[in-house]
Amino acid sequence: MTPDDGGEGPGELDFGGGDAPEPTEPTNLIPFPNVRPNAKVGELWAREREQTKYRFTGPFDALDALIRKRGLPTLPWPETWPELAKRCRLYAGECVGVVGPTGGGKSSFSIQVGIAATGRRIPVLWAALELDPVEIDLRIVANVTRTHTARIREEWTREQIAHVLASVEDLWRFVDRFRDPERQIEAFRHAVRSAKKIYRVPPLLIIDYIGKMSSCSRDPRLATREHAEMIRELTLDEECYTMILAQPSRANNATLTGKIELGAASDAVGVAGESGEIEHACSVMIGLNVFKLDDTSELDAHALISKARGSGYEGRQGFRFSKPGGVWSELGYLPATPKEIATEVKRAKKDKHRVEPVTPASARTDVNATRSSEAEAARRQVVQSALVRAGTIGLSESQLRTMRGTGDTGRLKCALGELERQGEIERLFNGNWRIPR
User: pTM for this one?
Assistant: First the structure.
């Protein structure tokens, strides 16, 4: 091969023979540790770029962007959701999709994330494509105060509502709504740029919900795929965080309400009926598997995490959804599914020695209590294993809190307290915990 510009042929080019930065870590895992980039190769590619419209970038060209993005914060999740936060690390330039059944708390889930973001000084841009800003205001107040929206709407004074909204006023803006999807995307982009200019940090863009952008299209599914890709490109170009809400199809609504059992969290991929393709645009997908019951103020749920690129921890996380206030609470265990409850009721009815009748409600309580106890024991085992690995130096509570399976602060303290009472661990003078000698 001889370059067209009459440059060096393969005989004069020593590919991989230049100098490279000295590694600061052992290189025994690198396939070819002695290979070094050649400056002449870079010069030839630079000449080629001058003659074409293409960039032909190399790995080193993206290295500075990688280091720069490392300095940006990850999306903050509510502090009471530590296990979900460990599974769903979202970086600037990435999208997270949230799919749930109709009336299954998707908006409340996203509002709770938005409130957590404002608490860390991350601005929130809410695209109210379904619920208008009035409804979102009501739900923000309800979530913060754990109060039913009907009571706030009918009984609270303007001053009471304003007092709650004041906590998010500076960091929460609603994006104007347009029927034209391209104009809507442009509004998203302008809002993100304005927020970055004002706050100088990546904002969180929440789209509630993407199906509204395609409702007037001849082919809503194809249109949603295009819109999801446009949103992904916007997120990547503007380096913001984006949360896309989506509805399931009627057929898949049964899947996300627990009537159809799921074998794995990844089985929830593709359940978003009008937007089955949003998975291709998202780094993380969260399926809200809500077990609906009539006349019940609190519902058990599983958050099904799939495509978790940031952490790789795909799987389930237990939650409880409280209708008053629309509050999501992370559980330290996986609550029983409707099928598991039905199986328990059937098994109990066959027990001839049982005196009290078993109802679905009592079976749910019993199974969840057992799951909770088992989760507590597993949590203590995680703590013990971590302290064994740490040795005599031990680990601090903050270090333990970052590990998967240790739960939130309250559950971790309970595990540490129980292990200390059993004499399994001890606390050092510096506050670290360790296994006794």
Answer: 0.85
